[in-house]
Amino acid sequence: MIDAPGLRWVPNGQSVLSGPLLGLAERLDDRFLSLAGRWDAADHRFPTFLAATVLERIDWFRSFPQLATFPVSLDPDEANLSSFTAGQPVDGDGRVRPTRFAPIRDVLTPAACYHLYDHYQGRAFDRPRYFTTRNTCFRREDHYVPLERQWSFAMREIVCMGTAAETRAFIDEATADIDRLVAGIGLPVRWAHASDPFFRPSENPQYLMQQVDPTKEELLFDDRLAIASTNLHHDHFGRAFDIRRDGEPVRTACIAFGIERWVAAFLHHYGTEGPWPAL
Amino acid sequence: MTEPDVREALRSWIAERNPELPPGEPADDTRLIERRYLTSLQVADLLLFVEELRQQPIDPASLRPGVFRSIDAIHSAFFS
């Protein structure tokens, strides 16, 4: 397990960054944001909650139920709240002892870019559009590793909405830019085909499709840790959110950077106390 | 089945699901997934259809990238 000044690991899958390590994380995000500048991608800051109906449109809950984390609150009925306070709100094992919950209508963001498709739903574009956003993302996993596999982590994404040729060109340009970035700082990485972690993949047609038409490439540090990915979605989101380009469902593509994972790669490769390469 | 029969059967299967396609389309080298003539909802059905045509099962785990890219690619992967 990695141990570095400025890193405090919270064993439920979260980390605290401070000092130079926080500075490194911020410089990395600034660098990703400057990559987004190549396309004049407009930055967006979305909330952490995402309406469950948004993900239902793309059948996300059936595809990735194991990853979901929901914000819950108590039913505000006074008797319900009284009952909660009359008991022991948190037991000796740290488990909350809830009374009745209010209906759950939201999910904690599992990937930053979903907000953009919801935000631009119903729009019609006549030229390629580029956006970027960063969010804290949440993915429930069966185990966690500091900076490498966390329940909550920061993700920067750059999204292209355009034609098939424009989204393909975006992925090619982004791949070349990322290659230049990692070559400049000397990180040992390689690109590899990847698929999303579908629940019961053999029963999911989207998994079968990813096998025959790989649309996801991951940038692996040290042959094991995906620190970035490129994803071509065809018209999956364009159809689901009725975003159109010249009358047709828009094609979309995104590139994603896991910020804590980049920090982990730097610590493993250059040491935990720096100096780290300039970005 | 002869090679032209296989190609025609595949063409008809795609055309039935894409009524907007002009007669004779898709061509043998048309990019089926890229053009969205084949979507993730249809790919499992196409796999079953290919199994029927060649009268042999296909292990989904053995599928390689590109095998459903075009009629040419399907023919080359499963009928050559």
Regarding CATH, which class of chain B? Mainly Alpha
Shape of chain B: globular
CATH topology of the largest domain in chain A: BirA Bifunctional Protein, domain 2
List the helices and strands of chain A in order: EEHEEHHHEHEEEHEHEEHEEEH
Strand order of the largest sheet of chain A: 3-7-8-14-11-10-9
What is the alpha-carbon Rg of chain B in Å? 12 Å
Number of domains of chain A: 2
Give start-end ranges of low-pLDDT stretches of chain A: none
Largest sheet of chain B: none
CATH 2nd-level architecture of chain B: Orthogonal Bundle
Largest sheet of chain A: 7 strands, mixed
In short:
The complex is a heterodimer of chains A (279) and B (80). With 279 residues, chain A is of the alpha+beta class.
Question: What descriptors fit this protein?
Answer:
heterodimer, A: 279 residues, alpha+beta, BirA Bifunctional Protein, domain 2, 3-stranded mixed β-sheet, 9 helices, 14 strands, B: 80 residues, mainly alpha, Non-ribosomal Peptide Synthetase Peptidyl Carrier Protein, Chain A, 3 helices
Describe what you observe in this structure.
The complex is a heterodimer of chains A (279) and B (80). Chain A has 279 residues and is α+β, with helices and mostly antiparallel strands. Chain A has 9 helices and 14 strands. In chain A, the strands form 4 sheets. In chain A, strands 3-7-8-14-11-10-9 form a 7-stranded mixed sheet. Chain A has a 3-stranded mixed sheet with strand order 6-12-13. In chain A, strands 1-2 form a two-stranded antiparallel sheet. The mean pLDDT of chain A is 96. Chain B has a single domain (3-78), classed as ACP-like (Non-ribosomal Peptide Synthetase Peptidyl Carrier Protein, Chain A, Orthogonal Bundle). Chain B has helices at residues 3-17, 40-54, 71-78. The longest helix of chain B is centred in the first third of the chain and has 15 residues, at 3-17. Chains A and B meet through helix 7 of A and helix 2 of B.
